[in-house]
Write a structure and sequence with these properties.
By secondary structure, the protein is mostly helical. The protein has a domain of about 100 residues.
Length: about 325
């Protein structure tokens, strides 16, 4: 005769450790999406950092020796000058980052939706709750993942430094972590965390909130069922909204995380995210906040599509209920 303990041991992992299972599944889906779209992220970062007015005032004359002109020319320039595989430079910390970031944000959002806020009796989840849940999930996930995001951004710029005749800063991912930790301490690993979580809150308000809202609207109010068509339409909408909301904060984040620092880990160009915002607008104009928008959107949309389709499918295969 089986006991409750025996039944628990025989139950599926998704039922025994639901949050851990969802964390791992979202990390797997994010890894697939990151590998497929990473070259667009590299292109976006290079476009966002070029032409910094603050860097020119610092006296770095090499910055604009070979400026990038548009997404396609940037990508082609990287291939021609650095090599095809350099389009994936920094992908390892990016995967580390997304395992932590996506796992943290997905688990947090579902916990808030199912436990803290709760759905109504007709399974409707109010938009205002979804907005708050999406922003809070982004903050939690990004704060946990900030060290890996910092390494990813700085490693993405190594190829550009080599072309400008500057010495490379890192030999690899683990050396980058060790060097940042040695120069700036634990605090240095969270450099740029304020604009980072600001961006994550906006992006997840666009991504999680839009996907969840559009998907359940389609399921509850149209003939569409909870299937790949609904998932695809919802993810396309979420990618567009996330790009529009997140690009300005992404520009600020990239510049703060890539700026040179003193021995105490303090930035030499910007005092804060607000200072970076003001300098960018005054020195380069408002549209500088949307530098890299096209590759950001072109990356965010397929990333969102690949992530959500993969995530929903592996949840189904693992016996976990749909998102």
């Amino acid at each position: 005769m089986s006991t409750p303990d025996d039944a628990e041991r025989l139950s599926p992992l998704a039922q025994r450790w639901p949050r851990a299972c969802k964390f791992l599944l979202s990390g797997c889906a994010a890894t697939v999406a990151e590998l497929a779209t990473f070259p667009l992220d590299l292109t976006k970062t290079r476009l966002q950092i070029q032409g910094e007015a603050a860097l020119a005032r610092l006296g770095d004359g090499a910055t604009e020796s070979a400026p990038y002109r548009g997404m396609v020319r940037t990508a082609l320039g990287i291939v021609q000058e650095e090599g095809f595989l350099k389009l994936w430079q920094g992908v390892t910390p990016a995967i580390y980052r997304h395992i932590v970031y996506s796992g943290g944000r997905m688990v947090t959002y579902e916990h808030l939706r199912e436990v803290v806020f709760g759905k109504s009796e007709d399974k409707h989840y109010p938009l205002w709750k979804s907005v708050i849940g999406g922003m809070m999930a982004g903050v939690v996930g990004q704060f946990l993942a900030n060290p890996t995001d910092l390494v990813k951004v700085q490693m993405q710029m190594e190829g550009k430094r080599k072309l400008e005749g500057k010495p490379l800063r890192f030999r690899g991912v683990h050396h980058a972590f060790a060097k940042i930790l040695a120069e700036g301490g634990i605090r240095g690993l969270w450099a740029g965390w304020v604009p980072n979580i600001q961006r994550a809150a906006l992006v997840n308000m666009g991504d999680l909130t839009t996907y969840d809202t559009v998907k359940h609207y389609l399921v509850l109010n149209t003939p569409l069922e909870d299937n790949i068509v609904t998932h695809g339409l919802s993810s396309l909408c979420s990618g567009l909204v996330a790009s529009i909301l997140g690009t300005p904060a992404d520009v600020i984040k990239s510049r703060i995380m890539n700026q040179p620092r003193d021995k105490q880990g303090r930035g030499l160009l910007y005092k804060s995210s607000t200072d970076c915002l003001i300098q960018a607008v005054q020195g380069e104009g408002f549209l500088s906040l949307y530098k890299g928008f096209l590759p950001s959107w072109l990356r965010m949309t397929p990333w969102s599509l690949v992530f959500w389709l993969t995530y929903e499918k592996i949840r189904e295969m693992s016996g976990v209920s749909p998102f």
